[in-house]
């Protein structure tokens, strides 16, 4: 019986040592994950879109920010968009209902691109394939979603090289890549 006591004591010490090492490893892993996640987001805008916000290679210093307080999103525009205008419209989707449309453009072309904030109920038609927004719009892109809205965008397809806005049409994808939610 005396011989079993040292073995039990040794096994107990090994078990305690194992749990201490396991606890230290868990703390290190959790700390490392926290650091990695917070360091990865440093300096980038929060985004709720699938595109992940702006690309890391895109330099947006000096660009101008647009914030839509009503729908809680923002976009960033390059310097050559300094005189852009924003106008509101309403789209009637029949049985789905009406939605606001936020149009971005210039005096010469007011609809360079549009952002459509659909309510979650309206967007449920898309998810269930009851309605495809592409059947109503030109090529559309999913931008992201908040608690209340699901955002899509549509870009103008007409590109006339003699038109002063034709170069700006090439910027639209970069602008939409900056879409972020509050």
Helical stretch tally: 5
How does the helix and strand content classify structurally?
alpha+beta
Could you give a short account of the major beta sheet? 5 strands, antiparallel
Any idea how many domains? 2
Low-confidence stretches: 40-57
Number of strands: 8
Multimerization status:
single chain
Q: Kindly provide the radius of gyration, computed on alpha-carbon positions and rounded to a whole number of angstroms.
A: 26 Å
Q: Sketch the topology as an H/E string, one letter per element.
A: HEEEEEHHEEHHE
Helix content: 25-40%
Q: Choose one word for the global shape.
A: elongated
Mean pLDDT: 76
* Separation of the first and last Cα atoms: 69 Å
């Amino acid at each position: 019986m005396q011989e079993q006591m040292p073995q039990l004591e040794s096994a107990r010490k090994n078990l305690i040592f194992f749990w201490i090492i396991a606890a230290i490893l868990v703390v290190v892993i959790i700390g490392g994950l926290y650091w990695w996640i917070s360091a990865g987001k440093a300096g980038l805008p929060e985004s709720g879109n699938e595109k992940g916000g702006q690309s890391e290679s895109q330099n947006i210093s000096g660009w101008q920010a647009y914030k839509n307080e009503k729908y809680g999103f923002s976009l960033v525009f390059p310097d050559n968009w300094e005189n852009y205008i924003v106008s509101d419209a309403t789209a009637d989707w029949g049985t789905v209902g009406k939605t606001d449309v936020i149009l971005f453009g210039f005096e010469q072309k007011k609809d360079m691109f549009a952002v459509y904030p659909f309510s979650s109920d309206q967007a449920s038609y898309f998810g269930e394939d009851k309605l495809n927004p592409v059947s109503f719009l030109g090529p559309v892109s999913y931008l992201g979603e908040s608690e209340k809205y699901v955002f899509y965008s549509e870009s103008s397809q007409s590109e006339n090289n003699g038109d002063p806005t034709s170069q700006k049409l090439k910027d639209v994808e970069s602008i939409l890549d900056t879409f972020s939610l509050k």
